[in-house]
Write a structure and sequence with these properties.
five-stranded mixed beta sheet, alpha+beta, four-stranded antiparallel beta sheet, DNA-binding
Length: about 350
DNA sequence: GTATGCTTTCGGC
DNA sequence: TTACGGCCGAAAGCATAC
C-alpha cells in the first residue's frame, strides 16, 4: 500500500484556518530579498486550476491569481512536521513493515495484516483514511497493489482523496496505457531513449524484446525495465531510519562573487548541519557544495574522504575549498544562492547499527 | 561487456 | 512582460574494476 497526503502543506493550512479552504491557498518560501521574491512550495487544487504549482515564482503565482480570492502563506515546517509525525504513527500501526518516504508519503506492507485478501486491504485503506481524517483532519490518496511499484503508480491515479486498488490479475491492463515515465527509474533521458525505440507506454515496453532492451541499457537496467513493465517488483518495504544526506541552502542578500562574504555563509550553514549530525552521533565521509548562479544555473562540487570526517573545522574548510575551486572554473556569473551538504554517513564507535549502511 | 562507486545534475513537492 | 526556495532522493554520466 502506498499513501500520499494530498497537497500536504496547503491542506494543513486549510485545516488550521477553515475559512480559507474555498480560496486558492498558496504556501510560499520567501527568499528574504523583499517583495514577493521566492517560490511556491505547494498550492491547493483551487490554485492549481490557475496553473499555480510547486516551484513557480511567487510573483508569477500572484499575477495568475489576481482575479481570484487567494491566500499566500509562508511555509511553517514545524507545523507540517508535527502533523506528518502524527499521521505516520497512525499508518505504522497497520503495517507489517513500514517505509516513510519524505514528509508526505509512505509504503505499508500489509500482506500479513490482511491475509493477502484484496477486499480486506481495501477495507483497511478506508479505515486508515477515516482515522487520519478524524484525528488529523487530513485527506490522502491511497494505492494498493501487489508491490511498491504498482501501489505507488496506483496512488497517483486518483487524487485528491483517492483509493485505487489493482489486483494481480489487473496489473498488466492497468499499466499498459500509462507512460513509461510512471516507472521509478525512468527519467527524461531514459524516456527519450525508449521513444527512439518506439516505446512510450508501459504496454509497448512490455511487448519489447528483452535482449534488445539489454543491448541498449545493459543487463541490470534492461531486466529492471522489462520486469517493471509487467508490474514485477520485489523490492522490500524497508524501514528507513537515517536520511542519506543532510543539506542547507540559502539565498544571498545580493548576487555576488565576494569569497569572504560567501565563506561567512558557509560557516553558518556548516555549523547548523554539524550540530544536527552531532545530535545523532554520526560522522560522514562526503561534503558537497551547491552554487546557484544569477542565471539560475546550478553547479555543484563534492569531495569524498576515505575515512569519516570528525570536526566542524574540516567541514568548513572542505566546503570553502570546493567553493573556491568552483569559482575558478565558473568565472562568468555572479552567485545567487549557496548550499552545503554532507552524506555518506558512518556510525560512531559504540553504536550498534545503521540500517542500509 | 557489465558491475560498482563516485560526481554532478535533475526533478518532485 | 517578467517574475525564481529549500530540501531530499533519483537519474545520469563517467572512471575504474572485474
Amino acid at each position: 500500500m502506498h499513501v500520499d497526503f494530498d497537497y500536504f502543506f496547503a491542506q494543513v493550512e486549510e485545516r488550521e484556518n477553515p475559512k480559507i479552504e474555498n480560496k486558492a491557498v498558496v504556501v510560499c518560501v520567501y527568499s528574504g530579498r523583499g517583495n514577493d521574491a521566492g517560490a511556491v512550495s505547494t498550492a491547493n487544487y483551487k490554485a492549481r486550476q490557475y496553473g499555480v504549482k510547486s516551484g513557480i515564482p511567487i510573483a508569477f503565482a500572484k499575477s495568475r491569481l489576481k482575479d481570484v480570492e487567494a491566500v499566500f502563506l509562508p511555509v511553517n515546517h514545524r507545523l507540517y512536521d508535527e502533523v506528518s509525525d502524527n499521521i505516520m504513527n497512525i499508518l505504522r500501526k497497520y503495517a507489517d513493515e513500514f517505509e516513510q518516504v519524505g514528509v508526505d508519503e509512505a509504503f505499508l506492507d500489509i500482506t500479513a495484516n490482511v491475509d493477502e485478501d484484496l477486499e480486506k486491504a481495501k477495507k483497511l485503506a478506508v479505515v486508515i483514511k477515516e482515522e487520519i481524517l478524524r484525528k488529523e483532519k487530513i485527506t490522502c490518496s491511497i494505492g494498493i497493489g501487489p508491490n511498491k511499484l504498482v501501489a505507488k503508480i496506483a496512488a497517483g491515479r486518483q487524487k485528491p482523496n483517492g483509493l485505487t486498488v489493482v489486483s494481480p490479475a489487473d496489473v498488466r491492463g492497468f499499466l499498459a496505457p500509462l507512460s513509461v515515465r510512471e516507472i521509478v527509474g525512468i527519467g527524461r533521458k531514459t524516456e527519450g531513449q525508449l521513444k527512439n525505440l518506439g516505446i512510450q507506454t508501459i504496454g509497448q515496453l512490455a511487448a519489447f524484446n528483452l535482449d534488445q532492451l539489454i543491448n541498449t541499457f545493459g543487463k541490470n537496467l534492461g531486466m529492471y525495465f522489462h520486469d517493471a513493465a509487467f508490474g514485477i517488483d520485489e523490492s522490500p518495504v524497508k524501514q528507513r531510519d537515517q536520511a542519506e544526506s543532510i543539506s542547507r541552502i540559502v539565498t544571498l542578500k545580493e548576487n555576488t562573487r565576494d569569497l569572504a562574504l560567501m565563506n561567512k555563509e558557509i560557516d553558518e550553514l556548516a555549523e547548523d548541519i554539524h550540530s544536527r549530525i552531532m545530535e545523532q552521533g554520526l560522522s560522514f565521509k562526503s561534503v558537497s557544495i551547491t552554487v546557484i548562479m544569477e542565471d539560475l544555473a546550478i553547479v555543484s562540487r563534492s569531495k569524498t574522504f576515505q575515512s569519516p570526517i570528525e570536526g566542524l573545522e574540516t567541514l568548513k574548510k572542505t566546503a570553502k575549498d570546493l567553493l573556491e575551486q568552483l569559482l575558478k572554473e565558473e568565472t562568468e556569473h555572479l552567485v545567487r544562492r549557496i548550499g552545503v551538504k554532507i552524506s555518506n554517513f558512518i556510525m560512531e564507535k559504540g553504536q550498534t547499527k545503521l540500517s542500509d549502511f
